[in-house]
C-alpha cells in the first residue's frame, strides 16, 4: 500500500526542506523507517501547521479562522513510501510508537479527474465532436458518407427533427428501411426519441450517409425471455440487412449498422449454460447472424453499455463482465464512451466481454449537447451516443473504401491500431485500444492508397 508519512524532524531539517532552492531527499529526513520502502523520487514536502486564530480553538476544525505556520519549529515534512499490504495495520501502528518524529501515516490513494455521470450537464457540444473527429479533413478527403447506407437499429428516426436540429438535409432510405411486423409507422417519421438521437450523432462524421431506419426497439413481440421478444425481430432485421448487402454491386459494397442497445440483466436471459442463453452463447441465433452479416461485408457496431463501475445505470444487474452477447461479438466493434474533454465517462461499461475478452474495442465521444432528442437541455449521452458517433466515422471511411477493398475485419484492425491510447500502454478494459482518431485513420488510408497505386 502506498502511504504518506508525516514527520516532524529537527527544525533545521524542516527549514532545509522548506527552502526549495536546496535539494533534499526522503533519506535526509526519514532514513530507517521500519517496514517502509521510501520513494526516493518524491522530494520531501514541508507542510504548515494549522493553528486557531483565536485562543482555545480547535486546530483541526476548518469551520473557524485558522492561521498556518511554516516556522521550522511548527511545520512538518511529508515523504512517500510503500508498506506491504499484509503489514499495513501493524506498521502504521508501529511507526509513531517507535519513532518520535513520526506524526502520522496516511493512505496515498490514486486520484483522477471526476468522471462524467448520468445526470451531469453536457460536456461540450456536437460541434466539439465535429472538430475532434476532424470532419473538415474527412470531407476534404471525400469521406463524408456519400452513398453509404447507415442502418440505425433503434426506436425509429424522426428525419424532420434531425434536419431542423442539424440545419442540413437528411436522407432516409425508405426502400431499404424495415419495420418488424408488430411495428407500424413510416421510415423517418417516428416519434422523437432515442433513435433520433442516434441518427443525429451518426451524421456528425457522415453527413451525407443514407439512413436506413430499422425500429426494432419498438417491437412488442413476446418470447421465452425479455430478450427473445426483441432478438427474434433483430434476427429478422439482420436477415433484411443481408439482402441489402447482397444486392449491392461489389465495387461499392458498404453497410454500416449501429446498435445502441443491449442486455442489462441476467434476469432478461436464460442462465449461462442453458441452450437458450444469449449473453455467453456464441451459438445463439442472433450472435450467429451478426457474425455472418459482418463476414458478408457489413461494419457492425454495438454500444458497450452503461454499466461502468463508477456510476452504472440503475438497470445494470450483471455482477461482473456487463458487456454481453453481440455487444461483445468478435466481429463487431464494441464502443465505450469519453466526453469531449477526453475523460472516460463513469457509466461506460468495462471489459472483459463475455463472447470476446477484449471489449470494448475503442471509445468515441458522448455526453455532449447535440440533438436534444432526449429532452430540453439533456445531452446526447450514454454509450448509446458514442456508438453512432463511431458508426458515422466508419460510414465516412466507406464512402471511398468499400468492403471489397477494405474488408470489415481490416477496418476494425485499422480503428484499433490508429486509436489514441489513453490509459495503460496497449489494450485495457476501460478504453479498449483507445479513442477513435480520425487523423490517424486518414493518414493510414493515405498510406494504403499510395501502396496500392
Tell me the overall shape. elongated
**Major sheet: arrangement of strands:** 9-10-8-11-12-13-14
Strand content: 5-15%
- H/E element sequence: EHHEEEEEHEHHEHEHEHEHEEEHHH
Task: Write up this protein.
Keywords: Hydrolase, Protease, Serine protease. The active site is at residues 154, 194, 384. Residues 145-434 form the Peptidase S8/S53 domain. With 453 residues, the chain is α/β, with parallel strands linked by helices. The chain contains 12 helices and 14 strands. It has helices spanning 11-18, 26-30, 88-98, 126-132, 135-140, 159-166, 194-202, 226-246, 285-296, 382-398, 408-418, 438-452, and strands at 2-7, 37-38, 45-47, 49-52, 66-69, 76-82, 102-107, 149-153, 171-172, 210-214, 256-259, 299-303, 333-338, 362-365. The strands form 3 sheets. Strands 9-10-8-11-12-13-14 form a 7-stranded parallel sheet, with helices on both faces. Strands 1, 2, 3, 6 and 7 form a 5-stranded antiparallel sheet that branches. The radius of gyration is 28 Å and the shape is elongated. The chain starts with a strand and ends with a helix. The relative contact order is 0.12. The model is unreliable at 223-229 (pLDDT under 50).
List its traits.
five-stranded antiparallel β-sheet, alpha/beta, 14 strands, 12 helices
Task: Give a quick precis of the structure.
The chain is an alpha/beta fold. It is built from twelve helices and 14 strands.
In terms of topology, how is this protein built?
Elements: E1 2-7, H1 11-18, H2 26-30, E2 37-38, E3 45-47, E4 49-52, E5 66-69, E6 76-82, H3 88-98, E7 102-107, H4 126-132, H5 135-140, E8 149-153, H6 159-166, E9 171-172, H7 194-202, E10 210-214, H8 226-246, E11 256-259, H9 285-296, E12 299-303, E13 333-338, E14 362-365, H10 382-398, H11 408-418, H12 438-452
Parallel strand pairs: 8-10, 8-11, 9-10, 11-12, 12-13, 13-14
Antiparallel strand pairs: 1-6, 1-7, 2-6, 3-6, 4-5
Helix pairs in contact: 6-7, 7-10, 8-9
Amino acid at each position: 500500500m502506498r502511504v504518506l508519512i508525516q514527520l516532524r524532524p529537527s527544525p533545521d531539517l524542516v527549514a532545509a526542506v522548506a527552502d526549495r532552492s536546496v535539494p533534499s531527499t526522503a533519506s535526509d529526513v526519514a532514513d530507517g523507517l521500519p517496514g517502509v520502502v521510501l520513494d526516493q523520487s518524491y522530494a520531501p514536502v514541508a507542510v504548515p501547521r494549522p493553528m486557531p486564530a483565536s485562543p482555545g480553538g480547535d486546530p483541526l476544525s476548518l469551520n473557524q479562522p485558522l492561521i498556518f505556520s511554516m516556522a521550522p519549529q511548527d511545520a512538518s515534512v511529508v515523504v512517500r513510501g510503500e508498506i506491504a499490504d499484509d503489514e499495513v495495520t501493524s506498521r502504521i501502528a508501529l511507526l509513531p510508537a517507535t519513532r518520535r518524529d513520526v506524526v502520522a501515516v496516511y493512505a496515498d490513494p490514486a486520484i483522477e479527474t471526476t468522471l462524467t455521470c448520468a445526470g451531469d450537464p453536457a460536456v461540450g457540444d456536437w460541434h466539439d465532436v465535429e472538430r475532434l473527429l476532424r470532419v473538415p479533413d474527412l470531407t476534404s478527403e471525400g469521406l463524408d458518407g456519400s452513398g453509404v447506407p447507415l442502418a440505425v437499429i433503434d426506436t425509429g428516426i424522426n428525419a424532420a427533427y434531425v434536419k431542423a436540429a442539424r440545419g442540413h438535409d437528411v436522407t432516409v432510405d425508405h426502400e431499404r428501411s424495415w419495420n418488424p411486423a408488430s411495428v407500424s409507422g413510416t421510415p423517418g417519421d417516428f416519434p422523437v426519441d432515442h433513435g433520433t438521437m442516434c441518427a443525429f450523432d451518426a451524421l456528425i462524421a457522415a453527413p451525407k450517409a443514407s439512413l436506413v431506419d430499422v425500429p426494432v426497439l419498438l417491437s412488442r413481440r413476446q418470447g421465452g425471455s425479455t430478450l427473445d421478444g426483441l432478438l427474434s425481430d433483430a434476427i429478422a432485421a439482420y436477415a433484411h440487412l443481408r439482402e441489402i448487402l447482397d444486392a449491392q454491386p461489389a465495387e461499392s459494397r458498404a453497410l454500416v449498422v449501429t446498435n445502441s442497445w443491449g442486455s442489462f440483466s441476467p434476469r432478461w436471459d436464460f442462465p449461462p449454460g442453458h441452450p437458450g442463453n444469449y449473453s455467453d452463447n456464441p451459438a445463439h441465433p442472433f450472435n450467429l447472424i451478426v457474425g455472418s452479416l459482418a463476414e458478408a461485408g457489413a461494419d457492425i457496431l454495438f454500444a458497450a453499455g452503461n454499466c461502468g463501475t463508477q456510476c452504472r445505470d440503475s438497470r445494470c444487474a450483471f455482477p461482473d463482465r456487463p458487456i454481453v452477447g453481440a455487444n461483445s461479438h468478435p466481429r463487431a466493434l464494441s464502443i465505450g464512451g469519453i466526453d469531449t474533454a477526453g475523460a472516460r465517462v463513469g457509466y461506460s461499461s468495462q471489459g472483459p466481454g463475455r463472447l470476446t475478452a477484449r471489449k470494448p474495442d475503442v471509445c468515441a465521444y458522448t455526453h455532449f449537447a447535440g440533438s436534444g432528442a432526449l429532452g430540453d437541455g439533456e445531452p446526447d449521452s450514454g454509450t448509446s451516443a458514442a456508438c453512432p458517433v463511431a458508426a458515422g466515422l466508419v460510414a465516412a471511411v466507406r464512402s471511398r473504401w468499400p468492403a471489397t477493398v477494405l474488408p470489415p475485419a481490416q477496418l476494425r484492425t485499422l480503428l484499433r491500431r490508429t486509436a489514441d491510447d489513453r490509459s495503460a500502454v496497449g489494450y485495457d478494459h476501460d478504453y479498449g485500444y483507445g479513442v477513435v482518431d480520425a487523423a490517424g485513420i486518414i493518414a493510414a488510408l493515405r498510406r494504403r492508397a499510395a501502396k496500392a497505386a
